[in-house]
Write a structure and sequence with these properties.
By secondary structure, the protein is α/β, with parallel strands linked by helices. It is built from eleven helices and twelve strands. Helix 2 (about 55-70) crosses helix 3 (about 105-115), helix 3 packs parallel to helix 4 (about 135-150) and helix 8 (about 225-240) packs across helix 9 (about 245-255). InterPro entries: AKR_Detox_Biosynth (IPR050523), NAD(P)_OxRdtase_dom_sf (IPR036812), NADP_OxRdtase_dom (IPR023210). One of its GO terms (molecular function) is oxidoreductase activity.
C-alpha cells in the first residue's frame, strides 16, 4: 500500500486528510487510538495544511497525539501545506483571501506547523495554491533553506495547472515529488485541462483530494449529481461492491500514474471500504469511460 514518490521516500496509497479533524469531536485518547488504528491498516500518511481548523488548530490537535505517543512519529509521513492567507484569530485584519509565497511568510508558516505538530521536521511540504505574484527564484532559495535546515525533506505542489507546475519547476532546484489535485466523478477539470496527462508525462504520482465531492455523491442536489449517483450504483451492482464509494475509489486508482487518495474522514467503515477497493475485481475500461463521459468529458 505504498507509492514511491522519490528514492527512499514513499507514502501510503491511502492518506488520511485532517482538514475536518476538529469536526470529528475526538478526545485526545480517541485521536491517538485512531492514528494507531490507521497505521495498523497500512495507512501511514497524514495530510494537513496551516489553515485547517484555523490558526493551525488541526495541526495542533494532531500534535497532541505525537506529544502523547512520540514513538508514532517514526511510523508515519506528515504532509502539510501553506500559501493561503485567510482571516482567522491570528490574522483578524485580513479582509480578502489571498496567496503568499514570500520567503519570510513560508518559513514562518513552516516553523508554526512544526511547532503545532510537535515534530522536528515535515516529510512533505506542498505549496497549497498558485501565487500569481510568486518570485520563482526567491521560492527556490526558500525551499533550499528549509531543506538544508532539515525542516522539510521533500516538496510538492497542490492545485497548480501544468504550465504553473512547469514554470516553478524550471526555477526550483528541488524536484516536486507530487501534485495534490481535486478529482472526483463530479469534478473532472484536471482531466480536461491536461493535468492528469502532465502527471503521467513527468512521472508524478498525483494525490486526489475530495474524492467523494464533499458528500454530494451521496446526496445529489441537481440532475447531474442524481444521474451520476445512478451510474455509480449500476456499476456497483456489476462489480458486486458494498457501496458506491468503492466504485469511485476504483475509478480514481485506475489511472496509470499510480495515484494516491486523500480520505478526509475519521469514519472507520468508510476507510475500510477504501482499503477494500484496493483489492478484488477492477472495473472495465468501458465502465471507467462511462463515468468520465457522464461527468461531462467529450471524447471527440
Amino acid at each position: 500500500m505504498k507509492v514511491n514518490l522519490q528514492d527512499n521516500f514513499s507514502i501510503s496509497k491511502l492518506v488520511i486528510g485532517c482538514m475536518r479533524m476538529n469536526e470529528w469531536n475526538f478526545s485526545i485518547e480517541q485521536r491517538v487510538e485512531f492514528v494507531e488504528w490507521c497505521i495498523e491498516q497500512g495507512i501511514t500518511t497524514f495530510d494537513h495544511a496551516d489553515i485547517y481548523g484555523g490558526n493551525h488548530h488541526n495541526e495542533a490537535l494532531f500534535g497532541e497525539v505525537l506529544k502523547m505517543k512520540t514513538q508514532l512519529r517514526d511510523e508515519m509521513e506528515i504532509i502539510t501545506k501553506c500559501s493561503m492567507c485567510v482571516r482567522n484569530d491570528e490574522n483578524p485584519n485580513i479582509k480578502t483571501r489571498y496567496f503568499n509565497t514570500d520567503r519570510e511568510y513560508i518559513i514562518n508558516q513552516v516553523n508554526k506547523s512544526i511547532e503545532k505538530l510537535n515534530c522536528d521536521y515535515i516529510d512533505l511540504l506542498l505549496i497549497h495554491m498558485h501565487d500569481l505574484l510568486v518570485n520563482p527564484k526567491e521560492l527556490n532559495d526558500t525551499l533550499n533553506q528549509l531543506r538544508d535546515e532539515g525542516k522539510v525533506r521533500y516538496f510538492g505542489l497542490s492545485n497548480h495547472n501544468p504550465l504553473e507546475f512547469d514554470t516553478l519547476q524550471k526555477y526550483v532546484d528541488v524536484k516536486f515529488v507530487t501534485h495534490q489535485i481535486m478529482l472526483h466523478p463530479l469534478g473532472i477539470e484536471n482531466y480536461k485541462n491536461g493535468t492528469m496527462t502532465h502527471c503521467l508525462k513527468e512521472g508524478i504520482h498525483p494525490m486526489f483530494w475530495s474524492p467523494l465531492a464533499g458528500g454530494r455523491i451521496f446526496n445529489p442536489t441537481n440532475a447531474l449529481e442524481e444521474n451520476m449517483k445512478n451510474v455509480l450504483e449500476g456499476i456497483r451492482q456489476e462489480l458486486h461492491l458494498e457501496e458506491i464509494d468503492e466504485v469511485i475509489y476504483k475509478w480514481l486508482l485506475m489511472h496509470s500514474s499510480d495515484p494516491t487518495i486523500v480520505l478526509g474522514t475519521g469514519n472507520r467503515e468508510r476507510i475500510k471500504r477504501a482499503i477494500h477497493s484496493l483489492e478484488g475485481m477492477q472495473m472495465t475500461r468501458e465502465q471507467w469511460y462511462k463515468i468520465l463521459i457522464e461527468a461531462g468529458y467529450k471524447l471527440w
